[in-house]
Amino acid sequence: MGSRREVESIEAVIHRMFEDIIPFNRVIGLKIDSLDPKAPRLRFDMRPELVGNPVRQILHGGVISATLDVVGGLAIALASIAEKGAAATARQFPNIGTIDLRIDYLRPGRGQYFVATGRVVRLGGRVAVVHMELVNDAEEQIATGSAAYIIG
To answer: Is 4-151 a CATH 3.10.129.10 domain?
Structure first.
């Protein structure tokens, strides 16, 4: 993947991009939990602003969907970096756009915090496919997803 300095540099760029530069990620409160290229993870805390059902006090489905979409993009970015090398990617971060996104909501979104994991199933030259999951602090699976992304 490159020298330790290159790896640290690209990790700093990824942290900054996913946690600071993308405003929507800040709204949700997404933080990188792991930059493992085979299974990166994002984490966020439950907050009143993220509730979708005030009676049941559960996470909004749109927050679940958006988080799984973001972790899918993160998984592709890391897989692309691993494939191309950190030095090349530091100069040109891959553009990633969602083509298709499917979410299966399995349980109500209850928990103190949530962790989303993405795993690249196929990384092609222009299209990538990712499987994702969201679990709560008790490690109960809240939702799963699969998505196709264009890489350009």
So the answer is: yes
Work out whether strand 113-123 and strand 41-45 pair parallel, antiparallel, or are unpaired: antiparallel
- Residue 134 corresponds to which tokens in the numbers above? 């969201």
Tokens representing 31 are: 């933080």
Across the range 109-137, mean pLDDT stands at 97
- The dihedrals phi and psi of 123, each to the nearest 5 degrees, come to -120, 100
At 15, list the tokens: 């942290």
Query: How many C-beta atoms lie closer than 10 Å to residue 143's C-beta?
Result: 22
Residue 104 pLDDT greater than 50, yes or no? yes
Termini Cα distance of the chain: 21
| This prediction's pTM | 0.90
Quote the Cα angle for 77-94-143, to 5°.
40
Stretch 97-116: mean pLDDT: 98
